[in-house]
Design brief:
Layout (H helix, E strand, L loop, with lengths): L5 E7 L4 H11 L5 E5 L6 H7 L3 E4 L8 H15 L5 E6 L2 E3 L3 H11 L3 E10 L6 H10 L4 E3 L6 E4 H6 L11 H11 L3 E12 L6 H21 L9 H24 L9 H14 L5 H28 L11
Parallel strand pairs: 1-2, 1-4, 2-3, 6-9
Antiparallel strand pairs: 4-8, 5-9, 6-8, 7-9
Length: 326
């Protein structure tokens, strides 16, 4: 067991068996566990209570976001265990790897300027589908000091409170957005070369992957707008890439083809770009070609997400959750 001043916040929505495995993995190391449910209809609330977690059910009258769920879980942790110094956030479709907390705590205790420490997230079933395989490659990020973390991370309570936690209206990418504000105050974010969580995407359909990519574009646009005047620009390059590859290039090729059909040959720039990405990723790495193809294709979905954000903003519409696990 870890010290009593450590808490865990798990969030979920209709995770079923995966939630049971998630809570079992965290309850094995601490009793200070809060589960935040976002309107599940599969009995997740009753399941979490049976497993001994304190349950917070989000108010259905307000839009769901992971950011809002984590904030409310954090608030519950502080109310139940006021002396908590560190909080481990974990998604309900993840299992916390045994030994991770000891490694993470040892590091963050020794490095007083580190606000967040995270490790390696892996897919539990990377060969179950091409989409799971893509996510497993996406999780394989460099270790050391970094600019952002993901949804699973160990957070220093004092630093988290200083910046006011997550922005609850951010639809996607709320973790990098939080990290921007922390880094502005001089805090560091660190990724360790240690197994942290096992993620079960259960992504089997192209439509799920497409909606997730739309969600990514939406989140990039939203966060970039929040920090447009920041000294730490975020997602501007990703947005520019989506606009160029998902909109500008097709427009140029399409309009040029109206003048002369030979301009259609310029569409060959897409397979060329895919080859460049595969080479950069490691041409001999397993799945590099697949990764490159989907990276290029994702630009179209991301552009759609960017356009959706600005359209909703222009019309003054409220935040809407973009779910891909349906």
């Amino acid at each position: 067991m870890i010290p009593d001043d450590i808490g865990v916040v798990a969030i979920g929505r209709n995770e079923g068996r995966r939630l049971a495995e998630c809570l079992a993995s965290v309850k094995s190391i601490t009793e200070n566990v809060v589960y935040v449910d976002s309107g599940s209809t599969d009995g997740s609330v009753a399941l979490a209570k049976r497993l001994g977690a304190h349950v917070v059910e989000l108010n259905l009258a307000q839009p769901f976001t992971a950011a809002r769920a984590r904030n409310e879980g954090f608030a519950a942790i502080k109310e139940l265990w006021p002396c908590t110094r560190f909080v481990q956030f974990v998604d309900g479709d993840c299992v916390l790897v045994q030994g991770w907390m000891h490694v993470a705590l040892a590091f963050i205790e020794q490095h007083k300027d580190v606000a967040i420490v995270c490790g390696r997230r892996r897919e539990r079933h990377p060969t179950a589908s091409v989409y799971n395989q893509l996510l497993d490659m996406e999780w394989n990020t460099p270790v050391g000091e970094t600019y952002a973390c993901g949804g699973d991370a160990l957070v220093r309570v004092g630093a988290f409170e200083t910046v006011g936690g997550f922005r609850p209206w951010v639809v996607a990418g709320e973790e990098p957005e939080l990290c921007v504000r922390l880094r502005q105050l001089g805090w560091k974010i660190w990724r360790l070369d240690a197994e942290m969580t096992r993620h079960d995407a259960a992504m089997t359909r192209l439509g799920q992957w497409w909606v997730r990519s739309v969600r990514t574009g939406y989140g990039c646009a939203q966060i970039s707008r929040i920090h447009r005047a920041s000294g730490l620009p975020i997602w501007r390059r990703a947005i520019a890439s989506a606009v160029v590859w998902g909109g500008l290039v097709p427009a140029i090729v399409g309009l040029g083809a109206l003048i002369h059909p030979v301009v259609l040959c310029c569409a060959a720039i897409y397979p060329i770009q895919a080859c460049r990405i595969a080479i950069r990723h490691g041409i001999n790495s397993p799945g590099s070609g697949l990764y490159a193809i989907f990276t290029v294709t994702a630009k179209f979905a991301q552009l759609l997400g960017i356009a959706k954000f600005y359209w909703r903003s222009w019309r003054g519409q409220t935040v809407q959750l973009i779910e891909y696990k349906v």
